[in-house]
Design a protein that fits this description.
The complex is a heterodimer of chains A (305) and B (413). Chain A has 305 residues and is mainly α. Helices cover 70% and strands 0% of the residues of chain A. Chain A has 2 domains: 49 residues, no CATH class; 236 residues, Orthogonal Bundle (MetI-like fold). In chain A, α2 packs across α14, α4 packs parallel to α8 and α4 runs antiparallel to α11. The two termini of chain A are 29 Å apart. About 4% of the residues of chain B have low confidence. Chain B has 20 helices and 13 strands. With 413 residues, chain B is α/β, with parallel strands linked by helices. Chain B folds into 2 domains: 183 residues, Periplasmic binding protein-like II (D-Maltodextrin-Binding Protein, domain 2, 3-Layer(aba) Sandwich); 187 residues, D-Maltodextrin-Binding Protein, domain 2. In chain B, β1, α2 and β2 form a beta-alpha-beta unit. The chains are: A mainly alpha (305), B alpha/beta (413). At the A-B interface, α13 of A face α3, α4 and α19 of B.
């Protein structure tokens, strides 16, 4: 530091800066190497081999865009994309709405808040596999929800989403939201607690209603919290796999297939690495397309402001 | 200090002792497989007993889950440089690339010494193990998929005669439905629907058309009138299976056992479920190979492969095990326990039950087909299974399904 403030040493400033905090840099070297070799290297390798006709073992017999042509002409892939779209949009909106509503209710200084908070967060402690199996049983028409309601006397009640190709994604959605909204609620609640009490007092003085205060004042103030919640939900959507495997196995037929399942099945069950790599490259592309504009707005904007 | 020293010494002595015991017992071979259900585990125990009786040790590496789960684990262990001494796979093309990469042991020497070419029946099994004139696996059993299992209870309940072929079954289906019985039980998974599809096409389209599509991969035959008729028959069968909401094959078999459903099209391994439920062939259930129309069965099944090993001692033991698995006594005890057909025709299987006898008779008459594992790569198989899953669960028309199927056959490898 003393050297840096010394004017004659100005020429040597750059290399010294590299050595600045060299202990910290040395300590983070393994992590940097892991990130470069495992994440970046692995990604580059996968993208490269998606242009080959690799089957069980990776080979370098280049086939150009053949794997991508087959991918986009495959019924199963198109169904997977459509399903992920339905699940993604519904899950994003519903989780945010339900999470925020629950948090706002808990924030109204109700009794037994701690108990409710634990109950709502509890599903998050379960893995997707357990959630999927539990909801598979709950939604089973012969001994789940449908049969219980029928036993109560409503004998024509019909609710069997897991065996109906048209609505099976909503069966998955129920389980996904049940599991995920508790965490979002906690994040939102933390955000609400961070709002200064004086804001509430000020709106009360101005005579603004509670709901209007939430929508017009509180939510805009909670922007960073919403961004965090959004990233968590989006990551959960794109990696949707274990819930599907546990709850429906992709069925009935192909009606609840998702992209991540396509990748795994093509790579290991069909022993067609090239096709699996092409599918995972497309998944990466979709993440990048969403992420880059967002990162640009988020970080690029901050520098200017 | 002296205590630590003492325990160290004892430890060393024990290790040394166990090491000597190991050499006295011969070679330890780790064998991986996915035979984990009751009957299967009993069957693999016969192999283990026979191998242990030679003074060597069988280290059992059972992997739970079906072949679809176990195969990737097995293959990644071989590719990853941690090979087991021997492993189960389905004979056919699953190991093709491993052989090309030189990762599997050449068994030609043992095969020639044992005269496998003369004893293995049908000879297509050995051909499935052969690449460039060298033999790389030992076939151990035959499983076939073209069977229909009929519940006598369901038919008695409806006051009907138990059908003796597919056409009678279709004719009786309406009466079964009137009696409140589901005619055809079907697990909602692509591979099961593909089995039903294969069995129905073989029965309806006939063997010539089936051969042209499945062996010669002739897409024109798949577009031909025989296959149009077959796809229409499958559409009819799909309507008979409407309302069958079970997933796993054994759940569907259970519907036949309890009389909830009239029939199920499933491979001969379904027999194990009937015997576990203590049902008797001929009085509680019937089995019709080739759906009772066409007495031919395919010859899929299991085989053992031996990954290449650096240790010459283990390599010698691997060759010894290969010869043992196909020896007459082991073949009899294993296949009786497993409920599968033996790979050699020269042994006495008279204690086998009625369904197995039917299968043995077909084998003796030469009514055999290569299985899907032998004709198609895993990639093609998955594409066909996906099509079947889509076809059976929705309301895709026969013409659309046939066109897609023909495209898959055209690009099949």
């Amino acid at each position: 530091m003393t050297v840096a403030s010394d004017p004659p040493a100005h020429k040597n400033k750059r290399p010294r800066k590299l050595l600045k905090n060299w202990m910290a840099k040395l300590a983070s070297l393994p992590m940097i190497l892991t990130a470069l070799v495992v994440f970046v290297g692995g990604t580059a390798w996968t993208v490269t081999y998606s242009f080959t006709g690799s089957r069980m073992l990776p080979k370098t017999n280049w086939v150009g865009f053949d794997q991508y042509e087959r991918l986009w002409s495959s019924d199963r892939w198109m169904i997977s994309i459509k399903n992920l779209g339905i699940y993604g949009i519904c899950s994003l909106i519903l989780t945010l709405v339900i999470g925020f509503t629950l948090a706002a209710c808990l924030d109204r200084k109700i009794r037994f808040e701690g108990v409710f908070r634990s109950i709502f967060l509890y599903p998050f402690a379960l893995s997707f596999v357990v959630t999927g199996l539990a909801w598979q049983w709950i939604l089973n028409p012969d001994f789940g929800m449908q049969s219980v309601v029928r036993d109560w006397g409503w004998t024509t009640f019909n609710f069997d989403p897991l065996n109906n190709p048209d609505i099976v994604m909503f069966g998955l959605l129920i389980a996904g939201i049940w599991q995920g909204s508790g965490l979002i609620m906690c994040i939102m609640l933390a955000g609400l607690r961070g709002i200064d009490e004086d804001i509430w007092k000020a709106t009360r003085v101005d005579g603004i209603g509670t709901v209007k205060t939430y929508v017009m004042v509180i939510i805009p103030m909670m922007r960073p919290v919403f961004v965090t919640a959004l990233v968590l939900i989006a990551a959960g959507i794109i990696k949707l796999y274990d819930l599907v495997v546990a709850q429906t196995g992709g069925g009935p037929g192909l009606s609840s297939e998702v992209p991540a399942k396509y990748v795994i099945e093509l790579m290991f069950r069909a022993q067609n690495l090239g096709q699996g790599f092409a599918a995972s490259t497309m998944m990466l592309c979709s993440v990048v397309i969403i992420l880059i504009p967002w990162a640009y707005l988020e970080f690029g904007g901050r520098k200017r402001g | 200090m002296s205590n630590i020293l003492k325990s160290l010494l004892v430890g060393t002595a024990l290790t040394a002792a166990s090491a000597t015991v190991a050499t006295a017992q011969g070679v330890e071979l780790e064998v991986t497989h996915w035979w984990t259900s009751g009957g299967e585990a009993a069957a693999v125990g016969k192999f283990a007993d026979a191998w242990n009786a030679t003074g060597n040790t069988w280290v059992d590496g059972a992997i739970a889950g079906s072949g679809g789960t176990a195969r990737p684990i097995i293959i990644s262990r071989i590719i990853g440089g941690d090979p087991m001494a021997a492993t189960q796979l389905n004979h056919g093309r699953q190991a093709e690339e491993l052989i090309e990469a030189g990762l599997l042991l050449d068994l030609t020497e043992v095969a020639e010494a044992g005269g496998w070419a003369d004893i293995v029946n049908p000879s297509s099994l050995l051909e499935a193990c052969t690449l460039d004139g060298k033999i790389y696996c030992v076939p151990v059993n035959i499983h076939s998929a073209q069977w229909i299992w009929l519940s006598h209870a369901a038919y008695e309940n409806a006051g009907l005669e138990v059908p003796t072929d597919w056409n009678e079954f279709v004719a009786s289906a309406a009466d079964l439905q009137t009696a409140g019985t589901l005619p055809l039980a079907m697990g909602q998974q692509g591979w099961q629907q593909n089995i039903a599809f294969g069995a129905i096409t073989l029965a309806v389209a006939g063997q010539d058309a089936w051969d042209a599509v499945n062996i010669d991969k002739n897409a024109d035959a798949a577009r031909g009138p025989e296959y149009t008729a077959a796809f229409e028959a499958v559409v009819a069968a799909r309507e008979l299976a409407r309302g069958s909401n079970v997933q796993d094959w054994n759940m569907a078999t259970n519907m036949v056992i309890t009389g909830e459903a009239g029939a199920q099209i499933m491979g001969d391994w379904a027999q194990g479920e009937f015997s576990v439920a203590e049902q008797v062939e001929g009085t509680d259930y019937s089995c019709l190979p080739g759906l009772g129309l066409n007495p031919v069965i395919d010859t899929g099944g299991d085989a053992f492969y031996f990954p290449v090993n650096d240790d010459p001692e283990i390599t010698a033991a691997q060759l010894e095990l290969a010869a043992l698995l196909i020896s007459p006594e082991v073949q009899v005890s294993f296949n009786l326990a497993k409920g599968s057909l033996p790979v050699r025709g020269d042994i006495d299987m008279s204690t086998a039950n009625g369904c197995m006898q039917k299968g043995l008779e077909i084998l003796a008459n030469g009514g055999v087909l290569p299985s899907g594992d032998i004709s198609f790569s895993q990639d093609t198989t998955l594409q066909i299974e996906d099509l079947q899953a889509q076809f059976w669960s929705g309301d895709m028309s026969a013409a659309d399904a046939q066109a897609t199927y023909a495209d898959i056959i055209e690009n099949a490898d």
